Amino acid sequence: IREDYTSNSGRQLPIEEKVKLVSDIDNTIGLLGLPMRMKGFVIPEYIREDKSEKGILMYDFLSQSALTEANDNTVKVLVTKDGMPLLVINTLDIDEDCTVKSIAYAFLQILVKYWLSPYCVLWDLTSFDNIELFKECLSFLEAIVSPKYWEHFKRVYMLNTSPAFFEGFKAMELTPTMCI
Asked: Any idea of the CA torsion for 159, 161, 166, 169, to the nearest 10 degrees?
């Protein structure tokens, strides 16, 4: 079609034929609809090359989870006053049937873009009091993520904690990497 339309073979298409050709192309594209958005998460090279025990675990987890549906609204990125990325985990956007692995995947697919430089985390815990899910998520992340990736972590903010969640959080035995 493009060759016929743009060829300089000396043959001129009448305007009616050009309009019909463009109209046919437009109709065909309209029938096909918008292309499916390809969701892809490319695992960074430094994770693929990390041959430590936790590096292999994290690579396997990210590879297996890449084909699953992750809630894109759970984690967003803002910027702090001092210019550091602020990863915001919005617990209102966590589905009722959400698993620890799906939360961890949503968090990690954003975090891996930022954790080679200083960053902060904000947990928006509005209407969230599932301390067990929170503990399991932190424990899972601690189990698969090498401590070297937490070196640039600077601050954590916890917003709108419920009294029940706050009491459960105070009772947790936190390791340094679980403070994310």
From this structure: -60
**The model's pTM:** 0.67
Predicted pLDDT of residue 2: 58
* 180 CB neighbour count, 10 Å cutoff: 22
Query: 130 — phi, psi (to 5°)?
Result: -85, 80
- Paired with 75 in beta bridges are 89
Residue 40: what pLDDT? 62
Q: What gap in Å lies between CA 65 and CA 104, rounded to an integer?
A: 10
Contact 77, 68 (CB under 8 A): no
Q: What is the CA 2 to chain-centroid distance, rounded?
A: 39
DSSP state of 87: E
Residue 62: predicted pLDDT: 85
Please state, in angstroms and rounded to a whole number, the distance separating the CA atoms of residues 49 and 45: 6
Q: What's at 177, amino acid-wise? A: T
Q: Pull the structure tokens for residue 121.
A: 């985390």
What are the beta bridge partners of residue 76?
88
> Residues 4-60: pLDDT tens digits?
555 555 567 788 888 888 888 888 888 887 665 555 667 888 888 888 898 889 888
